[in-house]
Amino acid sequence: MASSSSYQFGTALRDIRATAPLIHNIANLVVTNVTANALLALGASPAMVENAEEVAEIAAIAGAVVINLGTISSSWAAAMRLAAASAQQAGTPWMLDPVAVGALGYRTRLAVELLEAHPAVIRGNASEIMALAGQSAGGKGVDSLAASDAAIDAAKDLAHRYATVVTVSGAIDYVTDGRRLAGIGNGHPIMSRVTGMGCTASALTGAYLAVLDDPFDAAVQAMATMGVAGDIVMANGGAKIGPGSFQTAFLDALYHLDGAMIAALVKLT
Amino acid sequence: MASSSSYQFGTALRDIRATAPLIHNIANLVVTNVTANALLALGASPAMVENAEEVAEIAAIAGAVVINLGTISSSWAAAMRLAAASAQQAGTPWMLDPVAVGALGYRTRLAVELLEAHPAVIRGNASEIMALAGQSAGGKGVDSLAASDAAIDAAKDLAHRYATVVTVSGAIDYVTDGRRLAGIGNGHPIMSRVTGMGCTASALTGAYLAVLDDPFDAAVQAMATMGVAGDIVMANGGAKIGPGSFQTAFLDALYHLDGAMIAALVKLT
Amino acid sequence: MASSSSYQFGTALRDIRATAPLIHNIANLVVTNVTANALLALGASPAMVENAEEVAEIAAIAGAVVINLGTISSSWAAAMRLAAASAQQAGTPWMLDPVAVGALGYRTRLAVELLEAHPAVIRGNASEIMALAGQSAGGKGVDSLAASDAAIDAAKDLAHRYATVVTVSGAIDYVTDGRRLAGIGNGHPIMSRVTGMGCTASALTGAYLAVLDDPFDAAVQAMATMGVAGDIVMANGGAKIGPGSFQTAFLDALYHLDGAMIAALVKLT
Prior knowledge:
The first copy, chain A, is built from 11 helices and 10 strands. By secondary structure, chain A is of the alpha/beta class. The first copy, chain A, has a single domain, classed as Ribokinase (UDP-N-acetylmuramoyl-L-alanine:D-glutamate ligase). The mean pLDDT of chain A is 93.
């Protein structure tokens, strides 16, 4: 297990704000606005491009690429294949968010296929990660039916097999590269009542991938950023807060956050 | 006309929160985030899936399906046909939101075709319901040019012909199954200055359809939920409120709402 | 340079609210909700229609058409061509928002092609306007790398060549018809940390185009409306504001704005 002092929280966030890395997202119809705003609030420069005519061009020049399976059809799937291949060829780190994999057959097959293009990080909930590792966990649409610690073995297995980093989101977020394992215990249950928080975690992981060499470090810092921002919102908002005001205040928190706040508030195990 | 005591407002809402029914939405590009968030705030589990490759699979396992005509093209239309057919075959209740029907020819023909797959509820504004019933009312894009009571006869006619329940949104929301008629007088004009409130009403109707056997009851409770949540926002917000803060506070209100509040505040006629 | 007294700010805004002109938008996946809400908050009636089957029909009956290149694929591009041609044939004023033109080849070629259908106004950031005028300015995805005044010559050149009005967004917004030049110095840097503010400026330009005969006047009033609304939000919000609360308060400000406030606060140069 890692300790807070292993991570230079301030440095990476300052680098994101200083260089505003271009993060190419193939997001989905539900969250494309939300994830673009989260990246802007943090200090990155999002490009939401999902058409097959342009994805290869932008994936090659981006600081990182985030491929989210939330919306897929044959044309989106084609764009995902092109973007992943272009990122791999250009050496751009890319990450995979396997939304609802396991629950639906078409996207499960697509996700397994995309793994061959070597994502730097994979982030999903327990059901998604277990399904991607070939375990049957059951998911209900996009929501997990299993707790995050149930997926730690599956995450390690995936990380080993594909030489990648795997993040399992949940009450505790786990990050592993197969060897190292970090748990981040921040955040609040209301975050599961706001659509796109998982996709936002993936987008922020993309921002950190663009400024850090170690994908494990990037994944941990992204989840710490998410969780601490959520804690700040709940600490300021009290009992009156609901999913609407949470969403608004969360973007504000990302904007005002600095490395010292993350280092002070992160609950690493 | 129905009285408030006919409805068990608390029971259905508690069931939604206890079971988190999976609501499959073919929403539209404008409101897919908004309606997903409204369903999550209420306590349901939204799945926003609109690709032809997956809609039949998810419609068959969902608690209810919501088909919204806001965004249509030949590929979306194909997905709508598949989802409606799959829901009908699986016995999943589904509802139709005929956005802008009457104003545009392509979607008007599609809506009439979808009626053959027996929606449990149809919800639209007066122009849309009158157009769907074959009356010429005129609509300006997605906004109605007629008051809701002008469409009561059209609603009853549609309900009779297709053995369905019809909701007409407006200053007063009317719900009819051809025999029964309920009016819900809650809500506020500012709701017409926030995009997607009608679509949200349809999504919440889907959530109630998943836990109630009687589609008329589900439609009434959904409109009561919408209207009472709107009233709570306006009561708390005062003159300073605008469409931005309304939207945020509305999600909070859905999250904090309980059956006793609905029963106390609903204006049934 | 123009003075504030040249513009009848109150009249046009009152006309928008009195007639609620139908504004047909081919927006993009990131901002379609945001721009629809901004148009509703201002008092216009947005129709977000981007499918090839319907765009010609609605462009012909709209008060103005807004074509935004944020999301393009072969099918969206086809719809854009149809909408622009239909608007031109019907005499409906239309405007072009060349999002990320210059940064990506496919959309750059499409934008140049669409210019042949005579847009009434073109609005973009400095990089986009310079690229559209054939100058190489460099852009990073959707964000400009150049200040707005660097694009004034390119804007004048474009305006001359295509007999149109060009708006360059930036710290100062410039509007020119090749002969006249106005600068609007309102607004705040935080607006570049909220996705879709540029697209919103284009949408509001559409609303003003629907009620004013002079596209130069429409473009100036739209940018004044944007900037003054932003100033009001920042004046009320103080240091605590972030991109989330800004977005919410901005819609409220558009809703409560009147012509006297714009005339009093606009910084024209």
